[in-house]
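Aim 2, interim progress. The first record below pairs a target sequence with its structure tokens.
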Amino acid sequence: MPDIHIPFEHNQSAHCETGVISNLMGFHGLKVSEPMAFGIGSGLFFSFFPFIKINGIPIASYRNMPGDIFKKFSKRTGISFERHSYRSPESAMRELDETLARGLPVGMLTSVFYLPYLPKAFRFHFNAHNIVIYGKEGNDYLVSDPVMEQPTIIAPNALVRARFAKGMPNTNGRMYFPTKVPAGVDLRKAAIKGITQTAKDMGTIPVPLFGGKAINYLAKHMRQWPEKQGDRKSKLYLGQVVRMQEEIGTGGGGFRFMYAAFLREYADTYNVPELIPMAAEMTAIGDRWRSFAYEAGRAVKGRDGMNGSFDALADIVDECGYKERDFFQRLMKVKL
């Protein structure tokens, strides 16, 4: 098979899924920033499930399900796309080659752990990392990984391993690509839909497993961990909360900063000055999440973060929960 060089522009981004959306849309002629893609796709979310555990540790998530941002972005902008998953690596790689031969760059889910171009310190078992394959040189594939400064290459056997990694979620060779981007996409209308859903999800869901209430629900359980779980397990639980916040798909503070950038871009583009101080407010909330991560990390390592007090750490989480619920309830009332 001859080399394939699709003229794809790589831009480094803060988050893999939104970075892939922005880069793919640019290829198809729709200029959309990463924060705008994030806001339209309602990327900011929170959930906490104390009764569902992975490796004995309850699940806290600072984001929606992997792939949801892309699906919501596509639906709200009217973009047609294909999504495929596969039972066999042979069929997955064959269809990848066929799609590349059509001149279409391909987004796909991979496991971070099996991407050899990433530094070893960055590799861990996370099966929802989005990358773009945009061509071939010999047998090697050309990779645009949004977290990397420059494009790179990957050998076919390594790509297969990353596409078919076992675990949660099971990647199943999943890939996706836009097939039609309509002219005159109304980004403002799409962004309003994104804001409306995020505000409702974070500000009004009554069940404490989801949205802003779930943040306070996490804080409540965090206060109980030392007595109920003991010192060692409590620190394992706390460490996982921080890891989900700062490592798994950006999450916590990073998503708040991106949402603030989205609100500021929307305010400037569509002349909604009321959103400018709200963008600053969301940045401050992100700073509090980062303060929690720093102090919790010290506590996990035995360095007396917040004097090792789970109550003091839970106070910050509680504060973030109440502030976010109030923030999004007020955002629902802004005339967009």
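The second target in this work package is listed in the same format:
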Amino acid sequence: MLLTDMGQTLALMDLLSIVAERNLAQVERILRGLSSGEDAPEPVSREDLAARIAEGSVTVLDVRPADEYAAGHIPGALNATLTEIERIVPTLDPAAEIVAYCRGPYCIYAHQAVAALRKHGFNARRLDGGLPEWREYGPQTTSVG
């Protein structure tokens, strides 16, 4: 009986692997489409972002809705949803690197924000992961109010 269960488990794992690979390829096509066919820039690791925040050499952009930002965000992060990107572009330092983040690795908001900012000539990248991964990494978060 144990071998049958093990065989079924392995078959299920194989099927999950196939589905994941197909979905990953589809996600990559979507992301390439956001970047006008170019490969998206490499994401910034949590460790690198923490170091850059400490140096003051980065602008951090939280692209989640305002209520989520108010509940907790990376300290010093600006908040602007995708519909507000155009409004904040004139306020951003064109020489600074911008790192956008949202809800997690499968949240497309950060990808879309990076694509929009790069079209304006900014050196923009996304955080590898999002706020949950940042919290897991260990640095503090800030809440409003």
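Residues 1-37 form one domain. This observation will shape the mutagenesis plan for the next reporting period.
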